[in-house]
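Weekly puzzle thread! Below is a chain. First person to post its structure in token form gets bragging rights.
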Amino acid sequence: MPELPEVETIGRALKEYLSGKKICKVNVFTPRLREPLDSLKNPELLGKKVLDVRRRGRYLIVELEDTFALLMHFGMSGVLKTIPLDVPRAKHEHVIFDLGNNESLRFECPRRFSLLKFIKLPSPGATPPELDKLGVEPLSDDFNAQYFCKCAKKRQISLKEFVMDNNVVTGVGNIYATEALFNTRLSPLRKACDVTKAEAEKLIAEIKVILLKSIASGGTTFSDYRQLDGSTGKYVLELNAYGQTGKNCPNCGKPFASIRQGGRTTVYCPECQK
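Winning reply:
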């Protein structure tokens, strides 16, 4: 599933590509993805110019004229592609936006867990109400040790699950939570409420460093994720723990452990991470 760096990478490229273009026609080839696609058949979508593209958590907001917007989430396998309109449709390209001049934006999603809907914003530049429950942005100043400890107080869940809770901090998924915990030598098994302020400061700083490095590398590609131009993310070459099941810790040389937490695989070093 694309995490914050991957969505940020796509959003930046999409903003450069889409800004100023108009949506001339929308072709929908399936009744639903995660939710029904009926909103894309609204005639008010046609002719709208793209004003901005921005990210909130793992969502993209494509703002249009008259405070309308397209809200996107890529789920497990969602991919955006910019292809000439006259190129034949591929099997899993479920939505094709005709942008005029033989240009098209295509939303591909083999597993159909993605979200794509046409919405109305409360005001220009606003965040959609659908995203009101998301936590703070991890790269913002709001994500700090004081906030972390306040939210973690009395939380008995594991530290890794806490960091991945989108109601606390949004966009930090399995890849970057695993890497940040390994790099700071904090065990993913620790209870969130037991983390000290000093440990929280160290972890938060590392999360921000890793996210920024991954954005600079175009994100991390393991399976489905692709950038807008079809290229893969290069941060996969920098990973120390994620995806390293069966290998040895580069710090102590002992085998990594692999467990399940919150439905996700956690790879960590029992020797180094305490």
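Puzzle host: Confirmed. Bonus trivia for everyone else. The first strand starts at residue 25 and ends at 28.
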